[in-house]
Amino acid sequence: xxxxxxxxxxxxxxxxxxxxxxxxxxxxxRIREALDYLTxxxxxxxxxxxxxxxxxxxxxxxxxxxTLNMFNNGLDTTIKQLGExxxxxxxxxxxxxxxxLLEKYSKYVFCHASYPWRxxxxxxxxxxxxxxxxxxxxxDTYKKYNGPIIIHGHTPDKNPYEYIGKKLIGINLDGxxxxxxxxxxxxxxxxxxxxxxxxxxxx
Length: 203
Hints:
This protein has seven helices and nine strands, in the order H-E-H-E-H-H-H-E-E-H-H-E-E-E-E-E. It has helices at residues 2-10, 31-40, 50-61, 65-82, 86-93, 126-131, 134-137; strands at 18-20, 44-46, 99-100, 108-111, 149-152, 161-164, 167-172, 186-190, 195-199. The strands form three sheets. A five-stranded mixed β-sheet has the order 3-4-5-7-6, with no helix packed on it. It has a two-stranded parallel sheet with strand order 1-2. The protein has a two-stranded antiparallel sheet with strand order 8-9. Strand 3 (99-100) and strand 4 form a beta hairpin.
């Protein structure tokens, strides 16, 4: 319901490209429905988040130290909701991208975590893409950053704009909608105008 409310607010049409920044699982009562919508909607690009990756890891290796740490952080909820179909959804998520660059919007790179993307990297290393919070934990990493503006999620923050000095280096679209703490919202950005939209959580 929250996803659909956001798309209505943004006036997104079926022919518009929709980029999902990941962490589609582990939150809310309709995980299956959210996955079904995002994997069947035309013109949709899904990016893998760390919670999505944990589903794949759980299906392939069972409960490990890593997945056990996530078990009480939503993994158990996803396992219950997906039931016997969990492998089917895991296989779908294996096809999700680590980042997206669109020629039409080359000033941006879309990924899950706040990784200081560099073209010369020839891609994003999985661990950094899924887990890192460099903007929050290591701002020195960004002082010489000259790449595209990083559109990401991963870390709930009331303020979406990330600056080093006066330079905008990232836009965080994680409004922490699952927190339901007063300010938390599901957040999206529309291009080409760059306008941000937010809607409250709804079951």
